[in-house]
Design brief:
Elements lengths: L1 H31 L6 H7 L4 E10 L4 E10 L5 E7 L4 E8 L2 E6 L5 E3 L2 H9 L5 H7 L12 E3 L5 E6 L2 E6 L2 E3 L2 E3 L2 E8 L2 E13 L1
Antiparallel strand pairs: 1-2, 1-13, 2-3, 3-4, 4-5, 5-6, 7-8, 8-9, 9-12, 10-11, 12-13
Length: about 210
């Protein structure tokens, strides 16, 4: 009888090790699950219509300057972005509709495309990813693939890698019932070379 008891001891140890390994793997998988949206994010998701007033700064191989920005957003994808100042070469208007996007500079005839980033790249020399910015200006990741994310203790987005851009969000402030970032810095390195975009939001109108 004693030899049988001694022989069963290693099997019990192996069984315990397997249980411990399984528990570790389950905990690791649970830690990799995406975190549920914070209360502030859930509130920001409801924000679909706005007027933003602020300043847009761009540093690229082709352009280096800033412009005043007014962004009027209706239900996506309907929007109107007006840039005025040196960066906008006087006045640049970007209009989005379900049929695509158009860009007009001054009295020049409008140009059209399906993608705003492609259109601004071709006309201004640097990409403006308006489709993703619809989410980013609210402190939200855009739908689709997103890389590393970092959040502050309040659960607000601080940094994000998405769509080829590295973004940093800061200066969250209360705007009506929402808590929204007022400074967003974005960097990318594509066909146009390094591009840095800084958006400073001075006013939200709902």
């Amino acid at each position: 009888m004693p030899p049988i008891a001694e022989a069963s001891r290693p099997s019990k140890q192996i069984h315990f090790l397997w249980l411990a390994l399984l528990a570790f793997l389950l905990a690791a998988c649970a830690g990799q699950q995406p975190q549920p949206p914070s209360t502030a994010e859930q509130s920001a998701m409801q924000l679909q219509h706005w007027t933003i007033k602020g300043k847009l700064g761009v540093r690229s191989a082709r352009d280096n300057g800033s412009a005043n920005l007014t962004w009027q957003q209706q239900s996506a994808p309907n929007y109107r972005i007006h840039l005025s100042g040196p960066l906008g070469a006087g006045a640049t208007v970007i209009n989005g509709t379900p049929g695509g996007v158009s860009l007009q500079r001054g009295d020049e005839p409008p140009l059209q495309a399906r993608n705003p980033a492609q259109l601004t790249m071709e006309t201004l020399g640097w990409p403006l990813p308006v489709n993703e910015m619809f989410y980013w200006v609210r402190g939200l990741p855009a739908p689709g693939g997103a890389g590393k994310q970092q959040r502050n203790p309040q659960g607000q987005l601080q940094s994000l890698q998405q769509a080829g851009w590295q973004l940093n969000f800061s200066d969250y402030q209360n705007r009506g019932p929402y808590v929204l970032p007022t400074r967003i810095k974005a960097e990318t390195n594509g066909i146009a070379g390094p591009v840095k975009v800084t958006l400073i939001i001075k006013e939200w109108l709902f």
